[in-house]
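Exercise: predict the structure of this protein bound to S-adenosylmethionine.
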Amino acid sequence: MSRPDSAAALRRTTIGQRLTRLFGQWGVFFRGFIEEPRMVGSIIPSSRFTVARMLGPVKWDKCDLFVEYGPGVGTFCRPVLDRLKRDGALIVIDTNPLYIDYLKRTIGDSRFHAVLGSAEDVEAIVRAHGFDHADYVLSGLPFSTLPGGVGPAIAAATHRILRPGGAFLVYQFSARARDFMAKHFRRIDSGFEPLNILPCRMFWGWKDDSDPA
Ligand SMILES: C[S@@+](CC[C@H](N)C(=O)[O-])C[C@H]1O[C@@H](n2cnc3c(N)ncnc32)[C@H](O)[C@@H]1O
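Solution:
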């Protein structure tokens, strides 16, 4: 007889597989949510309004390496690749193998690198791809529901891996991420996008030599 928790996990996976067949990309995203609700933190991907506003301040001609945490099913990946230089690179990092497998199957672009791992390890991942810094790092991570200590560790590692003048771009339903960012980034611009489910807060933390370490 199977244990109750493994029976529940099996039931969630079966429901998720049906949704994937029915709704394609949104089904894959929702399946990830029902299997790992605290890690995914949202039931549907970000809106095109959020994508456009978040990427607005990026200086694409100065971007050799763009890193994204928590790409999910790739809502930001195609818009980033559309704007990225021909010799630029996009590294995306997600803890969910369902999403990383989906991205590897659906995005065929030599500038695109999908890594199964945690954003906490961004420094090692960036160096393993032959870079010593990132120009921009984008995060859709649900900072409020991540395990204790993970959010602060990610904010610190992100500040270390960015070049001066680069930026940490963060969107979230709450302002929690700003608390973690503020320990490292002196200048943080803020915004709010109502046309998103749920409406979301947006932050752009600019790395400067005068920042606290
Ligand atoms: C709200 S979803 C964002 C999806 C997508 N970026 C969007 O805007 O539609 C959050 C994502 O963060 C991922 N995630 C959670 N913890 C992570 C971590 N420590 N490192 C990398 N990805 C993580 C989840 O697997 C999920 O794909």
